[in-house]
Amino acid sequence: MDNIIYLDNAATTKTSKEVLSAMLPYFSEHYGNASTIYRLGGESKKAVAEARERIAESLGADSSEIYFTGGGSEADNWALIAAAEAYGDKGKHIITSAIEHHAVLHTCEYLEKRGFEVTYVDVDENGIIKTQELEKAVRPDTILISVMFANNEIGTLQPIAEIGEIARKKGILFHTDAVQAYGHVPVNVDELNIDMLSASAHKLHGPKGVGFLYIRKGVKIRSFIHGGAQERGRRAGTENVPGIAGFGAAVKAAFSEMEESNAKIQRLRNYLIEKMLKEVPHCRLNGDRKKRLPNNANFSFDFIEGESLLMMLDMKGICASSGSACTSGSLDPSHVLLAIGLPHERAHGSLRLTLSRENTMEEMDYVVEAVKDIVYRLRQMSPLYEDFLKSHK
Q1: Does the active-site annotation cover 326?
Q2: What is the bridge-based pairing of β-strands 196-200 and 173-177?
């Protein structure tokens, strides 16, 4: 595994050494249950409280507004379902975007089957939500707007402050899935008028299986998991103390190093984008060129299948992902790429490369050369490419 070039950080990141060090004592030395009253459990309780405070500080929030979950998907489910239940007497209309993560889209489908109506607002060719359409979609019975902070496939950053202002002006709850953005770009819940926010530790070099939901004071939201009185009675279950301690350590590192880390990653990303567009024919960058996450580069290549590209990259030691859902057993292309106007055949030939601070310029050169070689070989086997060449003679 020493020769692996890892460029799938939007899927998950490598747990850092400092995070692992912060977690280890709570597996062995301080293993007490955080809900107990004796001293051993008190060490665990203290670790949870410190992580909660650190996360709250990073958002400009109060620690009492942070609730730990099993990850970002759970936080999304909780925000949408519990808010729908709590505010269902006021109305049954929800607004979201057409390019949300499936944790939001599938939850919306679940709510639609239970009598709620959902409006899916379109995005432009760069993946930015059309805020005028969003505002027009607001009705007297609208109870919730849920729009992701940054897209997980193409990296586009949404106009969260503007959306938050619309929601606040209309008296509607605003939730944002910030799983991809949190720890990578600054987020202040008061400045952005955010009422609920979801995040996950493993996207910022923390452990898998732990996330949080920010819930603004005064928001009427019900419990999602019932049982014990953990998380102030709103989320039952013994606290994942090692995971929460690791999350706190990851947040400390991410926010203290954000400016320096982002500067390095953006240099690598911009170099990668320029070189790829210059050296690989019939290649397109997906997402907004400037309003995007620092580490995201998403490309589409005409006349190839993304799944074949991924497998051949893997053979060269490169870990990446495709915008196409074919790798998960579906033949349908990415809903995100279709929403920004790509035809099916181009959406199938996509590649998402997401960087970290551990990547190097030499790796970017190697990746572009590998992609160029593989794309050339795949096109030689493509009847569509053969037809294209004949038609342009």
Answers
A1: yes
A2: parallel
